[in-house]
Amino acid sequence: MKRFYGTELPNPLMLGTAQYPSPAILERTFRESGAGVATVSLRREGAGGAGQTFWAMIRDLGVQVLPNTAGCHTVKEAVTTAHMAREVFGTPWIKLEVIGHTDSLQPDVFQLVEAARILTGEGFQVFPYTTEDLVVGERLLAAGCEVLMPWGAPIGSGRGLSNEYALRAMRAEFPDVPLVVDAGIGLPSHAAHAMELGYDAVLLNTAVARAGDPVAMARAMALAVEAGQLAHRADPIEPRDMATPSTPVIGKAFLS
Amino acid sequence: MKIVLNGETTEIRAETLSDLLAECEFPGRVATAVNEEFVPAPLRNGHRLKDGDRVEVLAPMQGG
């Protein structure tokens, strides 16, 4: 498995920590899925210090924490959020999101590249949430990113891989770069699909957290990414239009 | 003085950012910004607040 800024992950499943029915279910979901990365966020601290309880639980899980800049719409907002996240979470990892479109939550790739350039220059290890655009991918790498995270479909939509052709092209264009499908996964088959294309990991949240049984769904996702990865390494056959018999024709009895 | 703390107008006695965190009993692991600029923890002691400042105190939270 490829390393993410020098870190080898225990498996290719990255999970978000939002929207679970309860903290106890969130904790069980991580423990039973074996996910090695947890995305987290920063929000205003309320009375009673709810954030501290949450942080204590995540810390006890022993997973790699990936803070995000969710909800940021400008370079300045994302860069400031990244600075605050680095101090709070004590990691140079940052999932860089700069949202450009309200309904689709599509990244603003122009501001994304600029924010990535600033943050990598300051020692951050940037995981950019981007589109499947190859030129943007090139620019992000030139800006110092060593990982790319194209969307599968809009965040929370559960639509799976909207543009398989482009994701396949991205994999071919950047064979040595760790690539993560981030967002849009709804089912284990979607996650397996991403891994079958040769992606290195899948990042998802809603599909697990909003499932009727998040713990079971996370286990299904973990099995799916493992299956997809194994399948990719096993060199799958190419699809074809016509049937070919799998049972040998030679030696068949003449019985008509 | 009056400041805007996490979006709420708040009357405070504290004169510095670190005193504000103590006065409002914010727990340990938070990050701070004043008027949209990040103020790292080591600089909170020396950061004097003034009337009308907009202070953000952020903590770890669930995220995707």
TrEMBL record, chain A:
1-deoxy-D-xylulose 5-phosphate binds at residues 156, 183-184, 205-206. It is found in: Cytoplasm. It catalyses: [ThiS sulfur-carrier protein]-C-terminal-Gly-aminoethanethioate + 2-iminoacetate + 1-deoxy-D-xylulose 5-phosphate = [ThiS sulfur-carrier protein]-C-terminal Gly-Gly + 2-[(2R,5Z)-2-carboxy-4-methylthiazol-5(2H)-ylidene]ethyl phosphate + 2 H2O + H(+). Its EC number is 2.8.1.10. SUPFAM superfamilies: ThiG-like (SSF110399). The active site is at residue 95. InterPro entries: Aldolase_TIM (IPR013785), Thiazole_synthase_ThiG (IPR033983), ThiG (IPR008867). Pathway: Cofactor biosynthesis; thiamine diphosphate biosynthesis. Residues 4-248 form the Thiazole synthase ThiG domain. It is an enzyme of class 2 (transferase). Keywords: Cytoplasm, Schiff base, Thiamine biosynthesis, Transferase. Catalyzes the rearrangement of 1-deoxy-D-xylulose 5-phosphate (DXP) to produce the thiazole phosphate moiety of thiamine. Sulfur is provided by the thiocarboxylate moiety of the carrier protein ThiS. In vitro, sulfur can be provided by H(2)S. Homotetramer. Forms heterodimers with either ThiH or ThiS. Belongs to the ThiG family. This is Thiazole synthase.
UniProtKB/TrEMBL annotation, chain B:
InterPro entries: Beta-grasp_dom_sf, Mopterin_synth/thiamin_S_b, Thi_S, ThiS/MoaD-like. It comes from the Bacteria. This is Sulfur carrier protein ThiS. It comes from Ruegeria sediminis. The lineage of its organism: Bacteria, Pseudomonadati, Pseudomonadota, Alphaproteobacteria, Rhodobacterales. The gene is thiS.
